[in-house]
Amino acid sequence: MPETTRTKTNLHALDIRSPHDCGVVIFGASGDLTKRKLLPAFYNLFVDGILPKHFIIIGFARSEMTNEVFQELARQAINEFSRRPIDQGKWNEFASRLYYHRGHYDEPDSFHSLQKLQSERHNNFRSGKNWLYYLATPPSAYGDIGACLKQTGLAEDHDAGEHWSRLVVEKPIGRDLDSATKLNRSLAASFDESQTYRIDHYLGKETVQNILVMRFANGIFEPLWNHNHIDHVQITVSETGGLDRRGGYYEDIGALRDMVQNHLLQLLCLTAMEPPHNLGADAIRDEKRQILEALRPISSEQTNQYAVRGQYGEGLVKGSAVIGYRAAEKVAEESQTETFVALKCYIDNWRWSGVPFYLRTGKRLPKQCAEISIFFRGVPPILFNANPSKPVAPNVLSIRIQPNEGIALEIGSKVPGPHVAVRPVSLDFGYSSVYPAGTPEAYERLLLDVMLGDATLFMRRDEVEAAWSFITPILDGWSKQPINDFPNYMAGSWGPATADELLFRDGRRWRRL
Ligand SMILES: NC(=O)c1ccc[n+]([C@@H]2O[C@H](COP(=O)([O-])OP(=O)(O)OC[C@H]3O[C@@H](n4cnc5c(N)ncnc54)[C@H](OP(=O)(O)O)[C@@H]3O)[C@@H](O)[C@H]2O)c1
């Protein structure tokens, strides 16, 4: 059971829990994710006094590095990416808990020496026999690492479950249903599902967690949250950035796998799921899986009717000229990789019968944002809505996940003056004005949850596979149709014209963000 916090923290969202003593091994510790996210997140948790008293991090990778070099790498990473600046006193203490172990991911000897280091440090730091193993390598190494951990006896919980061993896995979990199933099977050969934490960092965002609070802690929304009152839902996750040095990775993946299979479908699940019978990890994940299973399949033959793909050419983003996708490093001249996707989905259950969910995501779009917009049905065409050429705008509830996190409800209001004119106005709640202390980074929350053994915000194996079951036929449909029109949108625009047509056909349009 988690301990209660010993130290007072200003991180209000995480304020009552602190894990037992433990250690962390990061595989792939020389890489990008470790620098950008993991080390800064652990540092912030440390500064907040949330990490246990006895805590160490061992970086494991093939690169040649001493402890001192690894500590310096961490210092630079925290300097660059942490939400808090380095405090020299805290840093010295944090740095003294960082170790590096050079090894190969597929060599049992490297794991025996890791085990030796763990027990030596355990004696020094009493970090307990609880270990979190973070796979921050490309997925091709996951199977070997899992197998070596198991072979060395590091994968098991000990002392009748009193001491734990947990595995954290990064996306992508497979590239289609078949490969995801194989990867999950290979992880399951070493770690039990209850020990496995699949990260989707979107679920660590405060605003994403707030979707459930908004829906189920407020009496006014739930009675309206169904096909009787909701016309349609739009979910947009747009990026202004391009490849950001990740050309080799992205070229092989594309937007559907990189963003829709995980982040957008998770947002859809939280928006659409039934109330869970409790707030336990499995109750919530059961409900999310039910939504994924209720998604109406888009067969390969129907792909063009329900799915749009795009790739950006050169253009202007936020006033600066940028190159097209095909001109980027490590991208093929005739690349067929999509950098934009729009989908129209239906959830075939009672609540959502006939309500389309439109999803879109892309790179090099005009604005960096993530938002869910719930469009309510319009009022009858009488009174203020009697003139068909000037329909009254529907009520829209928008959940801003980033930036400017908050919730806004658009309602019709009378424009002051002698004439009767109705204009939409916004009732707006901004997180930062109500909670000025700021919110923790998603990785902080998620890493803490793993240490506490709370799997609520992690994807279970069946969820991941259900999501791939929906996505894989779309990938198959696309693979059968050569693309002749890429690039089909200019950098800095809202994607290809076909994405607008997807909604125009239904008499709707994308919300202006
Ligand atoms: N970077 C991000 O922001 C981000 C975001 C979401 C998810 N992810 C996922 O997180 C994982 C790590 O991402 P990353 O960006 O840190 O990756 P990375 O920098 O490409 O790789 C991390 C480390 O893994 C080792 N490595 C590289 N290629 C390898 C290979 N083919 N086989 C075995 N080891 C290899 C390298 O360390 P050594 O050579 O020293 O062993 C490298 O420093 C990936 O699964 C990625 O998809 C990353």
Unreliable residue runs: 1-15
Distinct ligand kinds: NADP nicotinamide-adenine-dinucleotide phosphate
Give the biggest sheet: 8 strands, mixed
> CATH-wise, what's the superfamily of the largest domain?
Dihydrodipicolinate Reductase, domain 2
How far is it from the N-terminal to the C-terminal residue, by CA? 44 Å
CATH architecture of the largest domain: 2-Layer Sandwich
CATH class of the largest domain: Alpha Beta
**How many independent structural domains?**
2
Structural class: alpha/beta
Total number of beta strands: 18
CATH topology of the largest domain: Dihydrodipicolinate Reductase, domain 2
Q: Overall 3D geometry? A: globular
Helix content: 25-40%
Q: Classify the beta-strand content into a percent band.
A: 15-25%
The radius of gyration over CA amounts to 24 Å
Mean pLDDT: 92
> Strand arrangement, largest sheet?
8-12-13-7-14-15-16-17
Describe the structure.
This protein has 513 residues and is of the alpha/beta class. It folds into 2 domains: 12-170, Rossmann fold, CATH 3.40.50; 203-378 and 432-504, Dihydrodipicolinate Reductase, domain 2, CATH 3.30.360.10. The protein has 15 helices and 18 strands. It has helices at residues 32-47, 67-81, 88-95, 108-125, 142-151, 177-188, 206-216, 247-251, 254-272, 281-294, 303-306, 431-434, 442-452, 461-479, 497-504; strands at 22-27, 55-61, 98-102, 131-135, 165-169, 196-198, 230-238, 307-310, 312-313, 315-317, 320-322, 340-346, 356-362, 369-376, 396-402, 406-414, 422-430, 489-490. It has an 8-stranded mixed beta sheet with strand order 8-12-13-7-14-15-16-17, with helices on both faces. The chain has a 6-stranded parallel beta sheet with strand order 3-2-1-4-5-6. The protein has a two-stranded parallel ribbon with strand order 9-18. Strand 5 (165-169), helix 6 (177-188) and strand 6 form a beta-alpha-beta unit. The longest helix is centred in the middle third of the chain and has 19 residues, at 254-272. The two termini are 44 Å apart. The protein binds NADP nicotinamide-adenine-dinucleotide phosphate. NADP nicotinamide-adenine-dinucleotide phosphate binds next to helix 1.
